[in-house]
Amino acid sequence: MTSTKLGKDYVLNIQHVVKKFPVGEGKVLTACNDVSLKLYRGESLAIVGESGCGKSTLAKCIMRLHDVTSGSIFYGDQDITQLKGEDLRQMRKHIQMVFQDPNTAFDPKMKIKDIICEPLYNFDMIKPSEAEEKAKEMLRLVELPEDIVDRYPANMSGGQRQRIGIARALVLNPEVLVCDEATSALDVSVQKKIVDLLLSIQKKTNLSIIFICHDLALVYQMCNRAAVMYLGNVVEVLPAGKLKEAKHPYTQALLRSVFPLREKGTHTVQTLEGEIPSPVNLPTGCPFQDRCCECMDHGCRETMAPLKKQGIQHYAACHLLDDEVQETAQS
Ligand SMILES: Nc1ncnc2c1ncn2[C@@H]1O[C@H](COP(=O)(O)OP(=O)(O)OP(=O)(O)O)[C@@H](O)[C@H]1O
After folding, report:
1. pLDDT digits 0-9 by tens, 192-206
2. Domain 10-87+178-187+206-316, CATH homologous superfamily name and number
3. How much is the pTM?
4. Which of 12, 42, 43, 241 makes an SS bond possible with 206, Cβ 3.0 to 4.6 Å?
5. Is the CB of 21 under 6 A from ligand 1?
Protein backbone atom coordinates (compact mmCIF):
# COMPACT_ATOMS: atom_id res chain seq x y z
CA MET A 1 0.00 0.00 0.00
CA THR A 2 1.29 3.49 -0.86
CA SER A 3 1.62 6.23 1.75
CA THR A 4 -0.93 9.02 1.47
CA LYS A 5 1.29 11.79 2.80
CA LEU A 6 1.10 14.51 0.18
CA GLY A 7 2.67 17.92 -0.12
CA LYS A 8 0.49 20.99 -0.49
CA ASP A 9 2.02 21.58 -3.86
CA TYR A 10 -0.19 20.55 -6.74
CA VAL A 11 0.69 20.35 -10.42
CA LEU A 12 -2.80 20.22 -11.91
CA ASN A 13 -5.95 21.88 -10.67
CA ILE A 14 -9.03 20.69 -12.55
CA GLN A 15 -11.93 23.04 -11.85
CA HIS A 16 -15.56 22.41 -12.75
CA VAL A 17 -14.78 20.62 -16.00
CA VAL A 18 -17.81 19.82 -18.12
CA LYS A 19 -17.52 17.90 -21.39
CA LYS A 20 -20.61 17.42 -23.51
CA PHE A 21 -20.79 15.70 -26.90
CA PRO A 22 -23.56 16.44 -29.41
CA VAL A 23 -25.08 13.08 -30.37
CA GLY A 24 -27.60 14.04 -33.04
CA GLU A 25 -31.25 15.08 -33.03
CA GLY A 26 -30.30 18.02 -30.83
CA LYS A 27 -29.35 15.67 -27.98
CA VAL A 28 -26.27 16.10 -25.84
CA LEU A 29 -24.27 13.45 -23.97
CA THR A 30 -22.59 14.65 -20.76
CA ALA A 31 -19.36 12.67 -20.32
CA CYS A 32 -17.88 14.84 -17.55
CA ASN A 33 -20.19 16.79 -15.29
CA ASP A 34 -18.56 19.48 -13.15
CA VAL A 35 -15.37 17.58 -12.30
CA SER A 36 -13.00 19.27 -9.82
CA LEU A 37 -9.79 17.53 -8.73
CA LYS A 38 -6.21 18.38 -7.83
CA LEU A 39 -3.15 16.34 -8.73
CA TYR A 40 -0.38 16.79 -6.15
CA ARG A 41 3.31 16.77 -7.00
CA GLY A 42 4.74 13.25 -6.80
CA GLU A 43 1.40 11.50 -6.21
CA SER A 44 -0.37 8.80 -8.14
CA LEU A 45 -4.05 9.62 -8.43
CA ALA A 46 -6.30 6.83 -9.69
CA ILE A 47 -9.48 7.58 -11.59
CA VAL A 48 -11.82 4.62 -11.23
CA GLY A 49 -15.40 3.74 -12.14
CA GLU A 50 -17.39 1.55 -14.48
CA SER A 51 -17.00 1.64 -18.24
CA GLY A 52 -18.42 4.83 -19.74
CA CYS A 53 -18.24 6.93 -16.55
CA GLY A 54 -16.02 9.54 -18.23
CA LYS A 55 -12.48 8.56 -17.16
CA SER A 56 -10.91 8.67 -20.63
CA THR A 57 -12.82 11.81 -21.57
CA LEU A 58 -11.34 13.55 -18.54
CA ALA A 59 -7.85 12.31 -19.52
CA LYS A 60 -8.38 13.58 -23.06
CA CYS A 61 -9.47 16.99 -21.74
CA ILE A 62 -6.25 17.14 -19.69
CA MET A 63 -4.22 16.19 -22.77
CA ARG A 64 -6.19 18.70 -24.86
CA LEU A 65 -7.26 15.90 -27.18
CA HIS A 66 -10.74 17.24 -26.38
CA ASP A 67 -11.70 20.84 -25.75
CA VAL A 68 -13.72 21.22 -22.56
CA THR A 69 -17.28 22.53 -22.82
CA SER A 70 -16.66 24.63 -19.72
CA GLY A 71 -14.31 24.74 -16.73
CA SER A 72 -10.56 25.13 -16.35
CA ILE A 73 -7.49 22.95 -15.94
CA PHE A 74 -4.58 24.84 -14.39
CA TYR A 75 -1.00 23.73 -14.84
CA GLY A 76 0.78 26.23 -12.61
CA ASP A 77 -0.92 29.52 -13.37
CA GLN A 78 -1.72 28.56 -16.96
CA ASP A 79 -5.25 27.45 -17.82
CA ILE A 80 -4.37 24.79 -20.37
CA THR A 81 -7.93 24.69 -21.72
CA GLN A 82 -7.30 28.15 -23.19
CA LEU A 83 -3.90 27.50 -24.78
CA LYS A 84 -3.53 27.63 -28.52
CA GLY A 85 -0.81 27.20 -31.16
CA GLU A 86 2.79 27.30 -29.91
CA ASP A 87 1.77 27.77 -26.25
CA LEU A 88 -0.28 24.56 -26.41
CA ARG A 89 2.57 22.72 -28.15
CA GLN A 90 5.03 23.81 -25.45
CA MET A 91 2.64 22.69 -22.69
CA ARG A 92 2.76 19.15 -24.11
CA LYS A 93 6.36 18.87 -22.90
CA HIS A 94 5.08 18.87 -19.33
CA ILE A 95 2.08 16.53 -19.59
CA GLN A 96 2.52 13.23 -21.42
CA MET A 97 0.33 10.17 -21.89
CA VAL A 98 0.82 6.41 -22.03
CA PHE A 99 -1.89 4.69 -24.04
CA GLN A 100 -3.72 1.44 -23.44
CA ASP A 101 -2.61 -0.65 -26.37
CA PRO A 102 1.15 -0.93 -26.77
CA ASN A 103 0.65 -3.08 -29.86
CA THR A 104 -0.78 -0.30 -31.98
CA ALA A 105 1.02 2.69 -30.45
CA PHE A 106 4.09 2.77 -32.72
CA ASP A 107 4.97 3.10 -36.37
CA PRO A 108 6.28 -0.41 -37.18
CA LYS A 109 8.82 1.05 -39.62
CA MET A 110 10.56 3.13 -36.96
CA LYS A 111 13.53 1.86 -34.94
CA ILE A 112 13.24 1.80 -31.16
CA LYS A 113 15.72 4.68 -30.78
CA ASP A 114 13.68 6.89 -33.12
CA ILE A 115 10.39 5.95 -31.43
CA ILE A 116 11.81 6.90 -28.03
CA CYS A 117 13.44 10.12 -29.26
CA GLU A 118 10.56 11.28 -31.50
CA PRO A 119 9.22 13.80 -28.91
CA LEU A 120 12.72 15.30 -28.64
CA TYR A 121 12.92 15.63 -32.44
CA ASN A 122 9.49 17.29 -32.44
CA PHE A 123 10.81 19.97 -30.09
CA ASP A 124 14.18 20.23 -31.84
CA MET A 125 15.87 19.16 -28.63
CA ILE A 126 18.19 16.47 -30.03
CA LYS A 127 20.58 15.89 -32.95
CA PRO A 128 20.40 12.54 -34.79
CA SER A 129 23.94 11.77 -33.57
CA GLU A 130 22.75 11.97 -29.95
CA ALA A 131 19.65 9.78 -30.36
CA GLU A 132 21.32 6.43 -29.71
CA GLU A 133 22.83 7.50 -26.38
CA LYS A 134 19.59 9.14 -25.23
CA ALA A 135 17.54 6.07 -26.25
CA LYS A 136 19.94 3.82 -24.30
CA GLU A 137 19.59 6.03 -21.21
CA MET A 138 15.79 5.76 -21.44
CA LEU A 139 15.95 1.99 -22.02
CA ARG A 140 18.00 1.67 -18.82
CA LEU A 141 15.33 3.70 -16.99
CA VAL A 142 12.58 1.32 -18.11
CA GLU A 143 14.78 -1.70 -17.47
CA LEU A 144 15.13 -2.93 -21.05
CA PRO A 145 18.43 -4.00 -22.64
CA GLU A 146 20.26 -1.18 -24.41
CA ASP A 147 21.11 -3.29 -27.43
CA ILE A 148 17.53 -3.14 -28.74
CA VAL A 149 17.94 0.48 -29.90
CA ASP A 150 18.26 -0.54 -33.55
CA ARG A 151 15.43 -3.06 -33.48
CA TYR A 152 11.87 -2.56 -34.68
CA PRO A 153 8.87 -2.91 -32.34
CA ALA A 154 7.30 -5.85 -34.24
CA ASN A 155 9.19 -8.64 -32.51
CA MET A 156 8.77 -7.41 -28.97
CA SER A 157 6.33 -8.55 -26.31
CA GLY A 158 3.39 -6.38 -25.19
CA GLY A 159 5.14 -5.68 -21.88
CA GLN A 160 8.36 -4.60 -23.65
CA ARG A 161 6.38 -2.36 -25.99
CA GLN A 162 4.60 -0.74 -23.04
CA ARG A 163 8.00 -0.04 -21.45
CA ILE A 164 9.03 1.66 -24.68
CA GLY A 165 5.79 3.68 -24.58
CA ILE A 166 6.72 4.77 -21.04
CA ALA A 167 10.29 5.62 -22.15
CA ARG A 168 8.92 7.75 -24.97
CA ALA A 169 6.43 9.50 -22.68
CA LEU A 170 9.20 10.29 -20.17
CA VAL A 171 11.92 11.39 -22.60
CA LEU A 172 10.84 15.04 -22.33
CA ASN A 173 11.03 14.81 -18.54
CA PRO A 174 7.35 15.71 -18.01
CA GLU A 175 5.88 16.60 -14.63
CA VAL A 176 2.63 14.75 -15.26
CA LEU A 177 2.09 11.30 -16.78
CA VAL A 178 -1.45 10.27 -17.70
CA CYS A 179 -1.74 6.47 -17.94
CA ASP A 180 -5.04 5.51 -19.58
CA GLU A 181 -5.53 1.81 -18.84
CA ALA A 182 -1.80 1.50 -19.54
CA THR A 183 -1.56 -2.01 -18.14
CA SER A 184 -4.94 -3.51 -18.94
CA ALA A 185 -3.89 -5.04 -22.28
CA LEU A 186 -1.10 -6.97 -20.54
CA ASP A 187 -0.94 -10.26 -18.64
CA VAL A 188 -1.44 -9.93 -14.89
CA SER A 189 2.21 -10.72 -14.07
CA VAL A 190 3.43 -8.17 -16.63
CA GLN A 191 0.94 -5.58 -15.32
CA LYS A 192 2.48 -5.82 -11.87
CA LYS A 193 6.00 -5.32 -13.29
CA ILE A 194 4.93 -2.24 -15.28
CA VAL A 195 3.22 -0.76 -12.22
CA ASP A 196 6.32 -1.42 -10.09
CA LEU A 197 8.43 0.23 -12.78
CA LEU A 198 6.20 3.34 -12.80
CA LEU A 199 6.39 3.56 -9.02
CA SER A 200 10.17 3.25 -8.98
CA ILE A 201 10.48 5.96 -11.68
CA GLN A 202 8.09 8.11 -9.68
CA LYS A 203 10.30 7.81 -6.59
CA LYS A 204 13.37 8.88 -8.59
CA THR A 205 11.75 11.77 -10.46
CA ASN A 206 8.84 12.99 -8.28
CA LEU A 207 6.57 12.48 -11.28
CA SER A 208 2.83 12.97 -10.78
CA ILE A 209 0.73 10.17 -12.28
CA ILE A 210 -2.93 10.01 -13.22
CA PHE A 211 -3.72 6.33 -13.38
CA ILE A 212 -6.97 5.45 -15.12
CA CYS A 213 -7.78 1.93 -14.12
CA HIS A 214 -10.53 -0.65 -13.70
CA ASP A 215 -8.54 -2.75 -11.27
CA LEU A 216 -9.39 -1.59 -7.75
CA ALA A 217 -7.02 -4.07 -6.13
CA LEU A 218 -4.14 -2.57 -8.15
CA VAL A 219 -5.25 0.96 -7.25
CA TYR A 220 -5.42 -0.02 -3.56
CA GLN A 221 -1.83 -1.25 -3.71
CA MET A 222 -0.15 1.36 -5.87
CA CYS A 223 -1.89 4.74 -5.73
CA ASN A 224 -1.94 7.56 -3.20
CA ARG A 225 -5.53 8.62 -3.82
CA ALA A 226 -8.51 7.43 -5.82
CA ALA A 227 -11.22 9.53 -7.43
CA VAL A 228 -14.37 7.51 -8.08
CA MET A 229 -16.48 8.58 -11.06
CA TYR A 230 -20.08 7.70 -11.78
CA LEU A 231 -21.91 8.94 -14.85
CA GLY A 232 -19.48 11.81 -15.41
CA ASN A 233 -19.42 12.91 -11.75
CA VAL A 234 -16.71 12.52 -9.13
CA VAL A 235 -18.71 10.95 -6.28
CA GLU A 236 -15.84 10.21 -3.88
CA VAL A 237 -12.15 11.04 -3.44
CA LEU A 238 -10.16 9.17 -0.81
CA PRO A 239 -6.76 7.75 0.07
CA ALA A 240 -6.40 4.62 -2.09
CA GLY A 241 -5.16 2.62 0.88
CA LYS A 242 -8.45 3.41 2.62
CA LEU A 243 -10.70 2.29 -0.23
CA LYS A 244 -12.31 -0.25 2.06
CA GLU A 245 -13.51 2.68 4.22
CA ALA A 246 -15.38 4.29 1.32
CA LYS A 247 -18.57 6.09 2.32
CA HIS A 248 -20.43 6.63 -0.94
CA PRO A 249 -22.96 3.83 -1.67
CA TYR A 250 -21.61 3.58 -5.24
CA THR A 251 -17.98 3.12 -4.15
CA GLN A 252 -19.11 0.59 -1.56
CA ALA A 253 -21.02 -1.38 -4.19
CA LEU A 254 -18.05 -1.27 -6.57
CA LEU A 255 -15.75 -2.53 -3.83
CA ARG A 256 -18.05 -5.34 -2.71
CA SER A 257 -17.51 -6.97 -6.08
CA VAL A 258 -13.72 -6.90 -5.68
CA PHE A 259 -12.40 -7.23 -2.17
CA PRO A 260 -14.40 -10.17 -0.80
CA LEU A 261 -12.69 -12.25 -3.49
CA ARG A 262 -9.38 -11.67 -1.75
CA GLU A 263 -10.58 -12.81 1.66
CA LYS A 264 -10.79 -16.43 2.76
CA GLY A 265 -14.08 -17.88 3.93
CA THR A 266 -17.58 -17.74 2.62
CA HIS A 267 -18.95 -14.78 0.81
CA THR A 268 -21.13 -14.00 -2.11
CA VAL A 269 -19.88 -11.74 -4.84
CA GLN A 270 -22.31 -8.86 -5.08
CA THR A 271 -22.70 -7.01 -8.30
CA LEU A 272 -24.30 -3.66 -8.92
CA GLU A 273 -28.03 -3.92 -9.55
CA GLY A 274 -29.69 -2.19 -12.46
CA GLU A 275 -28.34 -0.39 -15.48
CA ILE A 276 -26.26 2.75 -15.63
CA PRO A 277 -28.62 5.47 -16.92
CA SER A 278 -27.84 6.98 -20.29
CA PRO A 279 -25.48 9.95 -20.12
CA VAL A 280 -27.74 11.49 -22.77
CA ASN A 281 -30.52 11.86 -20.23
CA LEU A 282 -28.81 12.62 -16.97
CA PRO A 283 -31.31 12.41 -14.11
CA THR A 284 -31.85 15.46 -11.92
CA GLY A 285 -30.25 14.92 -8.52
CA CYS A 286 -27.79 12.19 -7.57
CA PRO A 287 -26.55 10.27 -10.64
CA PHE A 288 -26.61 7.01 -8.65
CA GLN A 289 -30.21 7.35 -7.39
CA ASP A 290 -31.78 4.57 -9.48
CA ARG A 291 -29.27 1.93 -8.41
CA CYS A 292 -28.80 3.04 -4.81
CA CYS A 293 -30.53 0.94 -2.17
CA GLU A 294 -30.33 3.88 0.24
CA CYS A 295 -31.88 6.45 -2.09
CA MET A 296 -34.23 8.82 -0.27
CA ASP A 297 -37.15 10.37 -2.07
CA HIS A 298 -36.32 13.84 -0.88
CA GLY A 299 -32.94 15.24 -1.69
CA CYS A 300 -31.41 12.43 -3.76
CA ARG A 301 -33.86 12.91 -6.64
CA GLU A 302 -33.67 16.68 -6.49
CA THR A 303 -30.09 17.80 -6.10
CA MET A 304 -26.59 16.38 -6.47
CA ALA A 305 -24.90 16.48 -3.04
CA PRO A 306 -21.62 18.42 -2.91
CA LEU A 307 -18.39 16.62 -1.95
CA LYS A 308 -18.38 16.61 1.86
CA LYS A 309 -15.33 16.06 4.02
CA GLN A 310 -15.25 12.58 5.59
CA GLY A 311 -11.70 12.48 6.93
CA ILE A 312 -8.15 13.32 5.87
CA GLN A 313 -8.17 13.67 2.07
CA HIS A 314 -11.54 11.94 2.02
CA TYR A 315 -14.61 13.53 0.40
CA ALA A 316 -17.88 11.98 -0.68
CA ALA A 317 -20.92 13.42 -2.48
CA CYS A 318 -23.95 11.81 -0.85
CA HIS A 319 -27.03 13.23 0.88
CA LEU A 320 -26.80 10.49 3.54
CA LEU A 321 -23.48 11.86 4.76
CA ASP A 322 -22.67 14.90 6.87
CA ASP A 323 -19.60 17.07 6.64
CA GLU A 324 -17.06 15.88 9.20
CA VAL A 325 -15.74 19.42 9.45
CA GLN A 326 -17.68 22.54 8.50
CA GLU A 327 -15.60 23.68 5.56
CA THR A 328 -15.85 23.74 1.81
CA ALA A 329 -14.59 20.48 0.38
CA GLN A 330 -11.47 20.87 -1.72
CA SER A 331 -10.63 17.71 -3.55
N1 LIG B 1 -16.30 11.46 -29.14
C2 LIG B 1 -17.39 11.09 -28.47
N3 LIG B 1 -18.63 11.37 -28.97
C4 LIG B 1 -19.75 11.01 -28.30
N5 LIG B 1 -19.74 10.36 -27.12
C6 LIG B 1 -18.55 10.05 -26.59
C7 LIG B 1 -17.31 10.38 -27.23
N8 LIG B 1 -16.29 9.94 -26.45
C9 LIG B 1 -16.87 9.36 -25.38
N10 LIG B 1 -18.21 9.42 -25.45
C11 LIG B 1 -19.19 8.93 -24.46
O12 LIG B 1 -18.86 9.56 -23.24
C13 LIG B 1 -19.07 8.67 -22.14
C14 LIG B 1 -17.79 8.53 -21.36
O15 LIG B 1 -16.85 7.82 -22.17
P16 LIG B 1 -15.38 7.53 -21.68
O17 LIG B 1 -14.65 6.86 -22.80
O18 LIG B 1 -14.79 8.77 -21.13
O19 LIG B 1 -15.64 6.50 -20.49
P20 LIG B 1 -14.61 5.60 -19.68
O21 LIG B 1 -14.99 5.71 -18.26
O22 LIG B 1 -13.21 5.96 -20.04
O23 LIG B 1 -14.97 4.15 -20.23
P24 LIG B 1 -14.00 2.88 -20.47
O25 LIG B 1 -13.57 2.45 -19.08
O26 LIG B 1 -14.90 1.90 -21.13
O27 LIG B 1 -12.86 3.32 -21.32
C28 LIG B 1 -19.56 7.36 -22.76
O29 LIG B 1 -20.97 7.33 -22.70
C30 LIG B 1 -19.07 7.44 -24.19
O31 LIG B 1 -19.89 6.69 -25.05
Report:
1. 888 888 888 898 889
2. P-loop containing nucleotide triphosphate hydrolases (3.40.50.300)
3. 0.90
4. 42
5. yes
